[in-house]
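Lab notebook, bench 4. Still working through the backlog of constructs that have no structural model yet. Next entry is a single chain of 285 residues. Request: give me the structure tokens for it.
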Amino acid sequence: MQNPKILAVTGATGAQGGGVVNVMKKVPGWKVRAITRNTTSDAAQNLAAEGIEVVQASFDDETSLAKAFEGAHAVYAVTNFWEHYFRGKTLRESGTIEEAQGMTIARAAADTPTLEHFIWSTEPSAAKVTNGQIVTPHLDHKANNMAYVPAMKPVLHPGNGQWIQVLPTKPDAKILLSGDMAVNPGIWVRQVLANGSKTFGKYANVALEKWSFQQMVEVWGEVLGRNAVFMRGEMGTEMAQQFKFGEICDPWKETEEFLSSAALGIDEKEVVGFRGTIESLKHLF
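Model written out:
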């Protein structure tokens, strides 16, 4: 007999989440996992008494959500604007908190390899529908998440085994790289201090290499043994502008205000470049 699929339900002790639990606990082929902040509450204990798996997680703690979603095939996600408002937050503050929590849920879900279905409880944006004539925070903030949630889903090419990097820039556009930021900054700080007054009022350029996005993807695939490809796509305006900035100019063009790594006496063999950085992170992929 095939094991049932797991549906992780956030807000399982509330009205919406509880309603989902009540229906899905009766559906053959599915096992409900109730997610709540307080597993000792009466509502949570009642669910546990029915034989439903009850798991603790907080919308403010991505790690706890990721753990709660482990092995899940589907996630039902709902956030609660009014909870924050009734605790004394302003409408804007309540919406900001709700948006942040929604993104935390979405990131945790996106990192769940078994996930097949993400069901998001949302609202239409009054501001968007009326071109800004009607602003309704408890609708608008919830709807704002939908501008980002779809971008978190993995890009899948069935059957071809490709790992795709999607960024809003050309594959041959080049940017400056500073290598392993868990290693290199310490080397620069050491040398800045060692050079004393010579470094006063100066910039120390930590950029080691200038690579194209295509080069980076190729090296990533080479190091990890993956069939990696670059694809130009859409992303937030801010990131696109950053990449465009790096593409058309050298943002850290060295002038007399700058001290190069050579001027600081840094040995190139000591620092870790892009390839070395990916090598050190292999265990994460």
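Notes after review: The chain has two domains: 5-152, 162-284. The mean pLDDT is 82. Flag for follow-up if needed.
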